[in-house]
């Protein structure tokens, strides 16, 4: 981890990732223990009751990989795929857009934002940089345009 990250940025990243980890742990554990509310919800989504444990296990493994710093990017990739499946399931049964269908998208955004804010490797891969001072942009434009 880069030591130049501010404490505020680091804690923001930790809170974002923590929300994802806690929610996904809760969701996966309720599925693994086949709690009634989780089984009913999964069956309402169109899955068979015997799929609940498999879905819970996949979610649990993905979130554990996400929670370990060395494997957090792999975990985020797996969670993104998992959450994409959740979106597709909500679309298929025509659930409300903002409260149900897009909720996994919100979690996906938190997943990647939490890593992005604390991991310089991901920042370098994505090349999303803050705008520099106006003077730097002006010098860039002068030297490259004409």
UniProtKB/TrEMBL annotation:
The keyword Membrane applies. Keywords: Membrane, Transmembrane, Transmembrane helix. GO terms for cellular component: membrane. Pfam families: DoxX_2. The keyword Amino-acid biosynthesis does not apply. It is found in: Membrane. This is DoxX family protein.
